[in-house]
Structure prediction request, 130 residues.
Amino acid sequence: DQVVSHDAHSIPSTPIDSPASMLLLSSDVEVVGIDEAQFFDETLVEVVQTLANRGVRVIIAGLDTDYMALMAVAEDVQKVHAICMKCGSPANHSHRLSESDQLVVLGEKDIYEPLCRHCYNAAIQAEKSE
Prediction:
């Protein structure tokens, strides 16, 4: 029931299982914030369009490599990068450290690390050669 940043800032939230739930919960709101958009299915794009057409301001956070369609319909896109844990450059990849083969694995520093393109490619090559 909270969205919490890595530095412990939080805001109240309502967890949902599917994008369609947003339409049911947003009848009297001005702003909808969506975190971890990459974990929703492709119906998210249609739901976001419906909300925006109702005049709701929609703010989405997620990995842009997973939802290019959302970026295509957005009025404004702000890309925010982490810092590469290997070299300190801007990081645009989220490298999974766990060996889980599940599609969705929630976690923080123990499960994922931000990496720049160069360090990400090196990490993937190293994993392939193991």
